[in-house]
Amino acid sequence: MGALTYGTREIPVEDRLLAHLSVVMTQKLRRREGFLLTLPSGDRRLHAESFWISANSDLSFSYSGNRIPSFNQDWLEKMMNESFSSQGLDLTKHAEPAAAPRPVAANVEKTRSAPRERQLMGQRAS
Question: Which residue of 40, 54, 62, 85 could cross-link 34, Cys pair, CB 3.0 to 4.6 Å?
Answer without folding.
Answer: 54
